[in-house]
Amino acid sequence: MLAWPAGSLAQAGGDIRGKVSGGEGFRPEEVIVQLLNAADKQLVKMEYADAQGNFRISGVRAGKYLVAIQHLAYNRYLSAEILHSTATDLGEIRLEAAARQLREANVVAQKPLVQQQYDKTVLNVAGSISAAGSNALEVLEKAPGITVDQNDNIAMRGRQGVLVMIDGKQVPMSGQDLATYLRSLNAAQIDRIDLITNPSAKYDAAGNAGIIDIRLKKGRNNGTNGTVGLSLGQGVYAKVNPSLSINHRKGPLNYFASYNLGHRRDYNDLDIHRKFFTKEGVETGGNDYDNFFGFRFNTHNVRGGMDYQPNSRTTVGFAANAVINDGMVRSDSKAQSFDAAQSPTGRFNTLGNNNLHRRNYSFNLNFRRLLDTSGRELTSDLDYARYTSWEYQNYRTAYLDAGNAPARQDFLLFGDLSGQLDIYSVKVDYVHPIKRWGMKLEGGIKSSWVRTDNDVSFFDRSHGGYDLEEGKSNRFIYKENINAAYLNGSGNWKKLSYQFGLRLEQTLANGRQVIHEETFDRDYVQLFPSGYLGYKFNDRHDLGVTLSRRIDRPSYRELNPFRVFLDPLTSSTGNPALRPEITASYELVYAFREVYTAKAGYSRTKDNVLSVLAPDVEPNSVLQTNRNLARYDYYHITVGVPVTAIKWLNSSNTVVAYYGLYRGNLVDTDLNEGRVVFNFNTSNTITLDPKTTMEVNGNFQSRNWYGFLDIASNWQLGIGAQRQFWERKGSLKLNLSDVFLTGRVKAFTKLTGYSEAFRQFRDTRVLTLTFNYRFGGQQQGGPRRRTGGAEEEKRRAG
Length: 798
Hints:
Distance between the termini: 42 Å
Oligomer: single chain
Structural class: mainly beta
Radius of gyration: 29 Å
């Protein structure tokens, strides 16, 4: 905190002036000049130099001072004591260039993979060996308290409804689309991942379980610099992930670009045992499934843009992002039907061939203005995004009787699923420091407009033609406008630190099914408070408390009422009647020596959204859809214990214990279930020599409960090694994930009229070799990279 000494500035006084110079490429306008009291070195005033290097500090009372001059590419200058009266001219001050690099180093400091902080957990991915050759989703699966279920839904500390962001900008997808995108993002381009449990009012109120913010590496060096990488992985199938990021800075212009190619083959081996019952609990029959899904995806992720900084106070930027995803999913589903006596009654085999195409484009124009030296700042963002999708489905189902003879004609189904989503967003933020009180005020407004248009057609091709399946076909148009304003204050007072904010959001929405002319409307205004209060007792003990109220709106796909065919007896559909979840959260945080942390919290969610499998209209058929449960109570304790007792071992350990209690009634079934769940995560780095390290990581998840789903415990172990060379600009990493092939999912669910047990296997044991090389010049810094304002809307695009 910067403190203003009483009486250091008078209403009138003399000037202290001078001129700053440097070597080739020196930019005077990036110089910061600080006037300090000679007695206690407290800051009196701060100024910037102009384009010629001249600076002037006006109205300085007579006294003794020091002048400090800072520039990121030059050594800090500190003057001798200055005896100032009415006017002081320091003449020309020439700065000395900072050393470009250290050729030799005997001690190498390395951040631990996991760092616990008051409001978040930080994963330092850049230094992790186990992240070598991994993608962003695989890194998240190893994170403390993070789980990814069989449908690729991400949960934090047992709770879904997580926002995933890239550099503060929400990823424009959810569910399996989000998982596909994260699998295409090479971990070599990730600097760190912030797991934020208590976002301030400045963030959109969405995301009742918290925020996962993936921070990419950024080039701040002068000239041209960047990173090139190549990962080759082999499990059952091959994985290839080349990547390139480049940054060029010269004068007031900064250009940046990156490209990722994710070529990935994967599989999902899923065995299911289903039973059906009467309301009285008498078994009527069921099905046994042997499903195999083969995936092949090619995902191109391109980012680029520029920043223009005409002076040290102003930045104008443009950024664009394109995600092009083409995939093929082949499925082979063998199902055996049986009656109440477990006797076979027949079988059906379904072969599927799905072609998926996604084209996602987003553009951002941003402006930043530092209004004065006190820190007042104005920023604004304009965003536009368009997401288009095409999916062509072909299914052939052969029906056989109990003797394996054809029972009826094969059923051929063709689906044409297309859709388009447009997002417009504008936001303005303002920062106003109040140094007298040691606090900072932030405020802003935001508006977003969304329009989706999904046109889905299914055709029966069993008889050689294209007969429209009217019960499966429809067109859904959805429009939404969200307007928001917020005010947030934060600061420090003696041993007390605080942050309190309030956000207001208005939601206006309309949905329409074209064929049946069914519509629904949403119109509501809500307040979302958030805050933090911390107290530092001494150098050993810190205590804080946080609170927040948040919302999780359904994705646009979850509202879409279309049916998606999986096999003759299994389908899924959206639910236009879904209401948003509202969560109130409270957390107590304790830190010992700023290293060991413990967090205990409670939250209550109303209208909790659950994915439910339930009997459908046809006998022995199942429909999967999302529904609102009345209430969900959640309690948790998180403990972080780093261990550095041995100089060659750095260990980060996190234990999460939580209890989630589901209450309500869905599909004629009362739900009042909960279980204490434990998650243990350990990351251990072993230093063999300054350039060679090994890493051993493990994760254990105890038996878990999600709604009606009872999930068995599982654990994984990964090992890796790294060697650095070429003055640490190059690295070679070898990593083996899920060494003992234990990363499988087993679960059981039961509700009125239906039960299901399943187990799932995926390509989790992968040996990966990764090469990375950094190229570039001297560290110099650059304009701040902006992200954009349409974050929450884009997340729901999937």
